[in-house]
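tool=predict chain=A
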Amino acid sequence: MKSTLATLSLLATTTLAVPSATTFPAASGETAFPTAHIVSGSFDGEMLRFSRDPNTCRDQTETGEADAMFIVEPGGAISNAILSAAQAEGIHCRGACTLTNVWWEDVCEDAATFKQAAANATSRVVGGGARRAADKIFQFNGRGTVAVTDFYAEDYGKLVRSCGDCGANGGPRHVVVEGVVAKQGGVLCGINSNYEDTCTITGSCQNSGKSCDRYTGVEKGDGNSVKIGSGPDNYSCSVDGFTRTC
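tool=predict ok
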């Protein structure tokens, strides 16, 4: 399997590491913003439930950054936040970001979108969880690595998807999944093999045994991304300590 040193350095264990929580937390209070809240540096949500007012969710209709709950500048971080159903795009990370103990109660279009441009950039999702995602939870449009650790997913389409048909599409993109518990949903990663994407899954479970889907990605306007295979191939998709017992 092709991989980067950055990807390899994120692998710490081959045993199932149960997320810190698999029950969605109660909110400490409510707050709403009329526009996307821009985060530079670190933002602690203090376990408040965040909404957009007016609500920007249009189900699976593609919207954009302006309809997100948060926009995170490069190097920024969000922690201890609950996102309600009343928002469309969750979190947009313009560069590498860290999301710690963030919960999405009802994913609209996406929970978070990663747009980092640098091949050596790494965004991290640590703890937290998401549910009710009709399609994907995390959209990976940039380059580099997205690492999802100790996360809980329930009732979802895919955990992480490399963009299938972005403008200026390409790779490689590397997805690292560790200590994830995923129920009532699909694969933990969907990647574009033709762009040399990789997905490495360790110490995680998906209760239907769904690990990876492999696709051929395309440029926007050049047709549709096509699935070419499922499951580990020990080249672009690798699993270790993966089980369906959650």
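Residues 48 and 229 are 41 Å apart (CA to CA). The first strand starts at residue 29 and ends at 33.
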